[in-house]
Structure formats: structure tokens, C-alpha cells
Design brief:
Number of strands: 12
Distance between the termini: 9 Å
Number of helices: 14
Structural class: alpha/beta
Order of helices and strands: HEHEHEHEHHEHHEEHEEHEEHEHHH
Shape: globular
Length: about 350
Amino acid sequence: MAVKEFWQGKKVFLTGHTGFKGSWLSIWLHSLGAKVTGYALDPPTDPSLFDMAGVSELLTSVIADVRDLDRLKAAMIAATPDIVIHMAAQPLVRDSYKIPVETYAINVMGTVHLLEAVRSCPSVRAVVNVTTDKVYENREWVWGYREEEPFGGYDPYSNSKGCSELVTAAYRSSYFNPAEYHRHGVAVASARAGNVIGGGDWAGDRLIPDIVRAIMAGEKVLIRNPHAIRPWQHVLEPLSGYLLLAQRLFENSVAYAEGWNFGPADDDARPVEWVVRELCSKWGNGAGYLIDDGEHPHEASYLKLDCSKARMRLGWRPRWDLATALDRIVAWTKEYIGGNDLRETCRLQIIEYGRGFDE
């Protein structure tokens, strides 16, 4: 079934809808005709894409905490969703060093609570738990990590997301076992994506938002770890993967109930300094950068994903290369500076990205 035809009228319960990725996904789901209930805390940044694009007008928004099991259960049961996409998280590596207990509570117990709510909600047919490429035990390999590689995580954020994967696997085995699908009727998968970038991300201690803020202030961009290599991708890339995976889970149930990588082409695993240099060049007006030689918490220096399984079995592939993604960020940011309609800006970029995908 075509993507747009599938999502028309589907009821979706989306946690983390007030965040950067959640706001983009909410706009996309609305454009596909889905009926979305969002569950999250207030937007984590000011400004936020959620507020600037008026995302609350596109869905039923429940402002609450995934650590509140009773509230989460009640909200999900009231929404009677067909599909659940779990994106609520404490998503920042550097913050996880400062607030490790909160990071584990949100990212691990939040997943437990989400899956407990699913157990209480008979309407649910498919669940996608969104984690991260950082779930893997990073050995600084030059090749990409495959889905069967061991989980690890040096820092509390990465480790907590690895734990979230283990929770998902345990619940799938114990309560949503594929061999007993005829009894419970729920297919559960996880999705692991690389470093996501795009217009509307205002998070602190994240490369692209730091660059954009510095450029808008007329300052030099201060970067750390210039030689660290990351699998950069526009936010619409993994979101397209989540949509496709959720559809396959709903249509084909247990055949897709496992972990999936969604990352860019190998050529787009680039050093931090390359990304900064390219973005400054595309912006123009004398934008430049400086290297921050100070002490910083540990972050992996080399990390990329092998997405062969998603290409072969889901038919998913990256559609925008890194240069195109940076072009779209510059374009989006200039629309923001110009005071233009940012929901429409997002919608037009989704249409451009989705040509061929939504058919």
C-alpha cells in the first residue's frame, strides 16, 4: 500500500512530539492524514520548532511525563492508537553527564512505562521505539555497525539508550513474542539513527544549533572535537524510516519486529570540522569558526551505521546527501530570520523530500 494511503486516518500515539524530531514528524503525519496524539513535556528549548510552527494545532497534545506511568496509560488508552512511536527522551550526551539519574529514569524507565501502557491498550498493533546509533559498543571501527552488534555506551546517554534497547527486546520476548502474535496482536521494533540535523533544532551543545546561533549573532563558531566523525543526516531521513517501519509492522506484523538502522550513505560520515566549514561557506557573509581546545567530556571519535538491512528488506534508502541537508538548513534558517511561516517551510521541505517516497 502507498505510504499516503496507508497513513490516512491512522491513529498514532507519538511521545516526544514537542521536541525537534517530534515536531517534524508531527507535521509530516498530519500532512499524510494521520490523527496524532502527542505525549511529552513542554518544548525543551526556547525558541522551539513546536511553538514556531504551531504544531499543537495539528494534533491532540498531552503535556505530561513518561515517568508518570498512570498518566501515560490513561492518555494512550484514551487515544485508542493503531500505532505507537516512542521518541520522548533525554537526548543529549553532555547533559547526561550532568543529570545521569534523570537520563536513566527518562530513557530506561520511560521505555518500560511506554511498553506497559501498550500492554494496557488493546487497540495498538505496532510499536516503534526510537533509540540512537550510540547504543552500540563503540570500538572506533572504520566500518558501520550492524544491528546484531553488541550494545554498550560509554556515557550515561548512550548507555541508557542501550538499556532501552534491552528493555524493548525483553518486552518483545516476554509479552509481544512474535511466535504468539495471534494471541497479543502487537509487533514491536526499535529504530537506531545517526546524528540528525535540520532546521528548527535549537538544542544546546549540539553542533548545527551552535553553528546557527553563532552565525546569527555574527560570531565565530566555536567547535570541539573537530576530527570526530559522525553519520550526519537530515531529520527527514530517519523519520521516513520510522514511517516505513511502522507501516511494515502494521501490515506484516512479526516479519519486521526487530532492530533497524537508519543512517546516511558512507560518504556522509564526515568530520565535525568539514560540516562546520561547509555550513559556513553555504551561509556566506564571512561566517567562520574557531577550535575550542578546552577540556570536554568523552565523546566517540568515529561512529557510523551499516544500513544494508533497511535497504534490502524495507526498501529504505537515504534521499538527501549531506550537502543537500546543509542547503536545506540554510534555507530554513533564512526563512526563520525573515519571519516567514515555518510550518509551511517544513511542509514544503517534506513535500520536496517525499517525492517518490509518499507514492
